Amino acid sequence: MHSLVIRLSVANLSRLAIFCSRSQSSYPGFAPPRCASRSPTHRMRCSYSRISVAPIVAMSQLGDAGLRKTGVAVASARDRIYLKGEHMFSKAIAAGAARKCIGLVAFASFAVFNGQAFAQTEQQDLVNAAETTFSNFMRDPDMTWLQRHIGTARAVLIAPQVVKAGFIFGGSGGRGVLFARNEQTGRWEGPAFYNLATASVGFQAGIAVAESVTLVMTEKGLNSLLAHSVKLGGDASVAAGPVGAGANSDVTTDFIAFSRAKGLYGGLNLEGAVIGVANNWNEGYYGRGVLPPDILLRASVHNMQADRLAAAISRASSQRTSLR
Known about the structure:
Elements: H1 2-6, H2 10-25, H3 40-47, H4 54-60, H5 63-69, H6 73-79, H7 91-139, H8 144-149, E1 155-163, E2 173-181, E3 188-197, E4 209-216, H9 219-226, E5 229-231, E6 238-240, E7 255-261, E8 264-265, E9 274-277, H10 279-286, H11 292-296, H12 307-323
Parallel strand pairs: 6-7
Antiparallel strand pairs: 1-2, 1-4, 2-3, 3-9, 4-7, 5-9, 7-8
Helix pairs in contact: 2-4, 2-7, 7-10, 7-12
């Protein structure tokens, strides 16, 4: 349901409020056409024979934040309705029509905000889970290669839960968050949300759920993620990351993937996996339609609820770079 609710934008609320104002003027009890033939003074009196929905229109133009702060205005707007002129069909009927319109705008506002809150909760749950996964990988004594080389990566893709087909839902895969390092400022920007579709054969025997941290080592790898989707092993090269306390091999691929499942390392092979942009998740998290370059390169949007994970990645990359 939330995906339908989110499509009720503030712009649509504005259209709804304007429709209310226009529909009031066409109500049978308002300003009949004969007003046009009356004297200037009488036409002025007729022109006031409307219900004012200006408070509603003003609310619809405030934007999400403004509407949240002025939720009580829906109730008070009802009390500011004024009725003037001698051609009113019925004051009670007119006020009732206005209340219905105000109620419709109020309901739509409630649906928008609650739908967005629900969507953001899903995204934030993924961000929080990704933070836990990243923290565990950074403390794991068998992930020393990852820990030493994260400072040279262009981006980091964290997928806290990748599942095998038939375990939870129909296909193999999961969702992940991507953070990219700005080469000019050194800041890690994100997250951008992605869907991962993997082949069931990529799971080792007995493995149904895995978590992964993938380093994006090249500009080509990052650019492939900024596009709509990328197939690992096809559009860009991928290799399993070296594991073990003494891992010290050089890997020269676009993506280097580290995974764990039930305490086993390398339990997930991302060869052939397709990583695609989760546009609806990005829109829900940032409140408007955005593309990965807006989030990761231009930093034109920001959600402070992801600051803790961004700071953890920044600390890990700066500390590991200084140790090399």
